[in-house]
Amino acid sequence: MIKRRDFKKRIILKIMIIIEKYLNNKYTFQYNVLTNRTFIKAKKDKDFKLLDGYKINSIKRELNNNKYPCSQSDIKSLLESDYVPKFNPFVDYFEKLPKWNRKTDYIQQLIDTVKTTNQEDFAWAFKKWLVAMVACAIEDDITNQAILIFTGGQGIGKTTWMGKLVPDTLKDYFFSGTIQPNNKDNNLLLSERLLINLDELASFNKKQIELFKEMITKGIVSERRAYGHYTENYIRRASFVGSSNHNEILMDVTGNRRFLCFEAKTIELDHTLNMDLVYSQVMHILKEENFKYFFDLEDIARLEENNKMFKQSCEEEEWIEDLFDIVSNSDANILYYSASEIIEYIKKKKNFYQKISPIDIGKIMTSKGFERKKIKGSWKYIVRLKQ
Which InterPro entries match (predicted)? Predict the structure, then answer.
């Protein structure tokens, strides 16, 4: 004899099977793995829409009116299960692009729409960054740790041009505005967007820059969503661009290798280049060419040389240049100073009594090429005092 509880379970199972068939005939569902939300489209409609609480209740009402007993919880459980196929908008777009014709250099055509003060390095760095952007979007183990930055006059279209890098199909995955690295919702944007544009980088203070540098190296974002029950790991997908009306935007004397800075002189805002064709070439490069889209040590030296014109003036750096000569251990009249001793000498000679960071002094000394030697267990810089 079938127990009442088992009989009830069988009835519920049959009802759910009938409900699935009903929904299959009327709707198409997909689960967006970037936003972790379910979307719905009636068979007669063209576009998907977010499945929100209002629509879930409407579906429940529709089913009940058609004599299918179910609760909101039943519908919600069904639509948050593997009944709904997963969908990755980035993979779907990039993998379905037409094959590149292997002749037209669409990437170079895009590069030519911007004229910078260092066009050779811009063309070199931008191509690397663009390929890395696509790799970061579709590959689980790739993170684009460089940010493309335009400086230049106000109103020349820096932000507009960067927005056009996002193909029409993926416009919903572009964010432009201010990012707070400690903000949960801002962190989640790293897993939900293709491109994040940061306005007016010159307004960032040193602490914000350091937090941002940490953010752009993240490969995984660990957060609990507003409607979630647990902290989960999300794969980083977004790449970064930024702009400023001022050139002096880099604060750190070292560690600027993640910033691809270029001063734009003119920008063609009305270019009609088909971004689908640009990205078809990018996909060819990514899949069929042995293209190095990351920056190695040699590349970093080239970037640092380019970035010199974008560094903010630093009093500590100027003081070191004024007071010390770069020498080797075999030179005459040399002294061995620790970072703290260098600070004390600077304060004495420059009548400066505010706090100076030994870490910052160490970075400057290293970046300037001052040699070090271990003296009685402590590392000291080899210097000669300027007269």
Answer: P-loop_NTPase, VapE-like_dom
